[in-house]
Amino acid sequence: MKKLLVALSLIAGSLTASAQWGRPVDYAAGPGLKDAYKDYFTVGVAVNKFNISDPAQTAIVKKQFNSVTAENAWKPGEIHPKEGVWNFGLADSIANFCRENGIKMRGHCLCWHSQFADWMFTDKKGKPVKKEVFYQRLREHIHTVVNRYKDVVYAWDVVNEAMADDGRPFEFVDGKMVPASPYRQSRHFKLCGDEFIAKAFEFAREADPTGVLIYNDYSCVDEGKRERIYNMVKKMKEAGVPIDGIGMQGHYNIYFPDEEKLEKAINRFSEIVNTIHITELDLRTNTESGGQLMFSRGEAKPQPAYMQTLQEDQYARLFKIFRKHKDVIKNVTFWNLSDKDSWLGVNNHPLPFDENFKAKRSLQIIRDFDAAMDNRQPIEDFVPNPCNQPGQEYPQVNSEGYARFRVVAPDAKSVIVSLGLGGRGGTVLRKDKNGVWTGTTEGPMDPGFHYYHLTIDGGVFNDPGTHNYFGSCRWESGIEIPAKDQDFYAYRKDIKHGNIQQVTFWSESTGKMQTANVYLPYGYGKVVKGKQERYPVLYLQHGWGENETSWPVQGKAGLIMDNLIADGKIKPFIVVMAYGLTNDFKFGSIGKFTAEEFEKVLVDELIPTIDKNFLTKADKWNRAMAGLSMGGMETKLITLRRPEVFGYWGLLSGGTYMPEEIKDPKAVKYIFEGCGDKENPEGINKSVEALKAAGFKAEGLVSEGTAHEFLTWRRCLEKMAQSLFK
Ligand code: GLA
User: What distance in Å separates the CA atoms of residue 503 and residue 427, rounded to the nearest whole number?
Assistant: First the structure.
């Protein structure tokens, strides 16, 4: 499938499409995150010893980040494991790496219940010390670390995780059940109460009068914990404790938190501090059980595509909120460089760089945000999509081209609509209280028709709201974004309409029945001067994965013809739209696609059937062949091999002819080539110029604002039809 799509994108000459269609993309190409976010906040990363020594890894750090946190090396238990024993080795290496590269650091962390210098609590005999002794030791620790590194540090996580978690109304203290304290029952707290927090900040301020002093914690978006942190910081600040900011760790997952919760926490903390750092961002992929972290172990397993989409979407949403609050958010730090480094385990795939240090699409999505879209809300004039099934309110489309979806799936864990802005895996819906999933595309969609489907918990489904259309080798949901020029394919009640008949015929070469749809113009069969009028025929092919219904239904071929005829722009002709994948073609490589089987069906079986049963002008100068995408490939191959059959040739996002490919210049009266401006218009323009220069009558169309989709081809048909059979 991937190969096929690459092949198709090659013939369409479309680079943007190919990026979406599986050709390897270097997502790290482009500016670094630090540059993309220079007007917002610094972007940081937590590093280990490999990240600052392996050249491939240091290159990533230097390009992407302007803030570094030592993952473990500066933690009290690591750097100061015993009284008088200091492990400055790795800690210094990280600091020196940053000094050499002009990167500022977040000092993490000076006081924490975990990975702590627990010797501070006991004397030589192992007996608990008094809090005054503890403070003395803590002060010496903080002064030593801060003085050693403050030249390269701009912010310190002075105290880490001092507050209690949600969900514990009671707790056991010294064997007794008591109402839960807002504070974590750490050794620090048991010895000193919350005074240790104040002391730690005071010691840090003494040692570094200018550094930003941060209180850092996790689960800041949980209401209870948020309030406990808020109350503590507020109380401390009111008492004159030098807390400058709050660090929200940000160990999140693909479902959590939602924007509302995150914003509530940011807004709440903004009441008491003007600096917030997102200090430890990662998005785990595996689901939570009871709020517990789930670590993954073992070999890297590939991340399912839909999980990747959910994660990309979550990253996009979070960064949008971070950007919105740039007045208070001064830094966002990823916790670890790559999935390989992550404390969560590689199978959580939590970071924008994978286990081989290759950038993922999430990096691109975080980096290449569109600032103009950040504050843009769709106009609330959504109406049901024209393709909806009777009585269905959703999907809806607004006047700007946004699409809104609604899916009832109360027990689902995730619902993704495959449709969205380019470069993304689609639109991720969110569940409301009633179990209804809704979501709106990030921005306006290209006008015209789009196929789409739903991915619900990894399974693929159609949207029950809308009609199905044959595409991707199956019936898929469809949506129509109204185009400014939609009148040329609109149903007009004031004009005469032709009709479309389904024709079946036995195909000897394939050994089965084949099907074609035949457009007959209004007035077909009428007698002029005693004779039934006869018509030229256009054989019009669909693309890969489509069938004979694609042009009549989503292509609106009949309506386009009716309107052109009614407006006197063309003389009536017949259009035959046949099934073109008669050989069940499997795309191994583009080179193997010969269209030989279909050529037999078309030239030896279908054309004779049509000429026998319809009032056709059965000669080359009254016969045209054109096709879109794969149908264009078929057209090119067959017209070049059988120039005696067709006199007019058309390729719609389906490649180009080069003059030297056409042996006999007199073989063809007219060549049409077209594509969307989001494909590769230069290819079309160059080819048309070359053909004209070589004396061919050639015409091109570059469709404005469209890609490899049906509005491009409707426009192509409308233009091409006006030059056929002249
Ligand atoms: C906490 C700490 C970090 C790190 C993570 C897990 O969030 O603040 O230093 O230890 O846990 O890696």
Answer: 39
Q: For residues 198 and 611, what is the distance between their CA atoms, to the nearest angstrom? A: 93
Of all helices (H) and strands (E), which one includes residue 636? helix 630-641
Side chain identity at residue 181, one-letter code: S
- Residue 219 in contact with ligand 1 by CB distance below 6 A: no
Angle 131-149/89-101 helices, nearest 10 degrees?
Answer: 40
Residue 387 is predicted with a pLDDT of 95
pTM of the model: 0.90
Phi-psi domain of 478 (left: phi exceeds 0; alpha: psi -120 through 50; beta: other): beta
In the annotation, is 661 catalytic? no
Question: What does DSSP assign to residue 325?
Answer: T
Residue with tokens 């007698």: 527
Q: What is the 323 CA–ligand 1 centroid distance (Å)?
A: 24
Three-state secondary-structure class, residue 148: helix
Residue 585: the pLDDT is 55
Question: Sheet holding 474-481: strands in order across?
Answer: 448-452, 474-481, 468-471
> Does 171 qualify as catalytic in the annotation?
no
What residue has token string 């590093």? 47
Give residue 75 CA to ligand 1 midpoint distance, Å.
10
Q: Is 646 in the pocket of ligand 1 (CB under 6 A)?
A: no
- 128 phi and psi angles, rounded to 5 deg: -60, 140
Residue 259 annotated to the active site: no
Torsion of CA 464, 470, 471, 474, to 10 degrees: 70
Kindly tell me if the per-residue pLDDT of 582 is higher than 80: no
DSSP for 644-662 reads: TT-SEEEEESS----GGG-
- Residue-wise pLDDT for 494-546, tens only, equals 999 999 999 999 999 999 999 999 999 999 999 989 999 999 999 999 999 99
Strand 67-70, strand 245-248: pairing: unpaired
CA of 178 to the centre of ligand 1 (A): 29
Helix ranges (DSSP H) in 325-449:
361-367, 371-374
Do 400 and 421 meet the contact criterion of CB atoms below 8 Å apart? no
The secondary element (H helix, E strand) that includes residue 189 is helix 187-192
Residue 485 has pLDDT above 70, yes or no: yes
Atom of ligand 1 nearest to the CA of 336: 12
Q: Is 218 in the pocket of ligand 1 (CB under 6 A)?
A: yes
